[in-house]
Amino acid sequence: MRKLFIAALLLSLLVHAFALFGIDYGMFGEPPESVPLKAELRALPPLPVPEPSPPPRPKPPVEPIPAPAPVPPVDTAAGLAAMPARDDAAANDALATAVADEAVSPPRPPAVEPVLSGSGRLAFVVVKESLGMQIGRALHQWDFPGDGSYRLSSMIETSGLVALLKPLRQEHESFGRLVAHGLQPEGFRILRNGKPRGDNADFDWATGEVRLERDGSVLKIAPGTQDLLSLIYQLAYLRSPENGSTIGVVAGRSYERYQLDSLGEEEIETPAGRFRTLHLRAAGETLTEIWIALDRQRLPVKIRFTDKKGDSYTQLATTLDISGTGPEMPSGKP
């Protein structure tokens, strides 16, 4: 009996070890790290000896410039007398009005009514589909304070025995404003295992650009561009998501144009209940599929990330807390 128990334990460890080393950052929905470049020093070929240049040609003689004709004197008094009288008071009033107009900044557009008002939370389990087992958990939180701004945060981490063998925790944060077309991110932040990764992004909508922290590059972006987290909640603001569209997405270290396709309505079962959903697929460097609940403010109740290797990680909703009274973000300890 003891040998059978030990054999079962070893088998369980092998299965979890396989899951451990098979886990990639695709479970976070991010594109894979770029392959590091290798440098090799080689001797350069000798430089060619330049041919002697021909002697310069003699310059032609410079002809003298004729002196300008004399200018007749100007009667300054007569010129001033011919000028019309100036109304100093009117000129000062016009100047003051122009300065005042330039000093007034354009009014900020009125805040858009959020689909999700106040704050709330969504909890998920994370399943690696090739193993058919739970390997982690995730939590999303949102805050729409009513002043036209928004803040989204998400946490995803390994759990159980997988967390003991390979602890991974990643946090995303997106903040910005609500505009006519929905969410307009101003900043995107990433932490991995509690530390910055250098993959933050800052949006400048006055110039239509985004600055990537990793390499300092500044890229032009299309109107309506989202970050990796705001994309999930921007779907609630699309007028006709069932017709598909193209959306720019900033993933921290890259900017891509995602083709958003609709795969139709589906009824799905999750630990949080049964939902009538619209199945959407965003194809970029990685593949993201999102099922939004049509009867629950288009909340994402199922999310699947598929990396370049074909491994899929699915998040299934376990709790929907629209009132914002549920548990806070966990501490990150396994």
TrEMBL record:
Q: Which InterPro entries match?
A: DUF3108 (IPR021457)
Name the Pfam families on file: DUF3108
Region annotation (Disordered) ranges: 48-73
Q: What's the protein called, per UniProt?
A: DUF3108 domain-containing protein
> Per the UniProt entry, what species is this protein from, by scientific name?
Azonexus hydrophilus
